[in-house]
Amino acid sequence: MDPKCLLGKACIFLKREYDQCFNRWFAETFLKGERAADPCGQLFRRYQLCVQKAIKEKDIPIEGLEFMGPSKGKTENSS
């Protein structure tokens, strides 16, 4: 099944919007040595929420997948 179908058009649009923002910031700011904060964080959070909602609504199993984030690096026994 095409992953684009799983997430829906709303999430795909948000991903494109975030990717464009990040690529622009990366090329025009970060690579020039400016270490200003990433201005695309809000777009990323909207995209992330969209994906999480799609996963929940479509009952997509995510058990056993590793994610980057606050829990990264915790052992299985340290809940």
Automatic annotation (TrEMBL):
The entry's keywords: Disulfide bond
GO molecular function: phosphatidic acid transfer activity
InterPro entries documented for this protein: MDM35_apoptosis
One GO location term (cellular component): cytosol
Domain of life where this protein originates: Eukaryota
Catalytic activity: a 1,2-diacyl-sn-glycero-3-phosphate(in) = a 1,2-diacyl-sn-glycero-3-phosphate(out)
One BP term from GO: phospholipid translocation
Family, as annotated: Belongs to the TRIAP1/MDM35 family.
Protein name: TP53 regulated inhibitor of apoptosis 1
Source species of the chain: Apteryx owenii (Little spotted kiwi)
